[in-house]
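Q: Okay, next protein. This is Carboxymuconolactone decarboxylase family protein from Flavobacterium flavipigmentatum. I've checked the sequence twice, so it should be correct. Can you predict the 3D structure?
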Amino acid sequence: MTRLTALNPEEATGKTKDLFNAVQAKLGAVPNMMRTLGNSPAALEGYLNLSGALSHGKLSAKTGELLALAISESNSCDYCLAAHTYIGEKLIKADPAILHAARIGNSEDSKTAAILKFAKTLISKNGLVNNEDVNAIKNAGVSEAEIAETVAHVALNVLTNYFNNTANTEIDFPVVESIASQN
């Protein structure tokens, strides 16, 4: 059962209505996470702005989705796992095996693997990485701009993971459960 209310876009007003209209125009729907986050127009706008800014960064959309899966798995966020698996399969056209590998921080591409490993390290160390952690990602050929964006992707996904885990947002994508909840 959900713990926070998903607003009906038809009944929204003010800034929330404007944001929902923008999401609807871009995605063709307003997913439950955004409907629930819309209880605070400031929180929804912050999420949309950071997400939008990162979509124009150095890291590809595919890498962003793989990061979202790795981070969501680390935080056991079934809503985000479902959403990003769907996006990865349907929009990014990534092979399901690649998406599953990302959840555990793996990739056949060495640079992507280093990015995913660094993201998982950031989470496990609560952001308190050391010189060895940073040197490892740099030695894998990841630029400082890409490292900065990796940290930003972690922040964005921790926001959505924590929000959805708090709200117990109703999943409106094909359900995917975290590996930890399957054991």
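A: Here is a summary of the prediction. DSSP finds ten helices and no strands in the chain. The mean pLDDT is 97.
Q: Noted. On to the next one.
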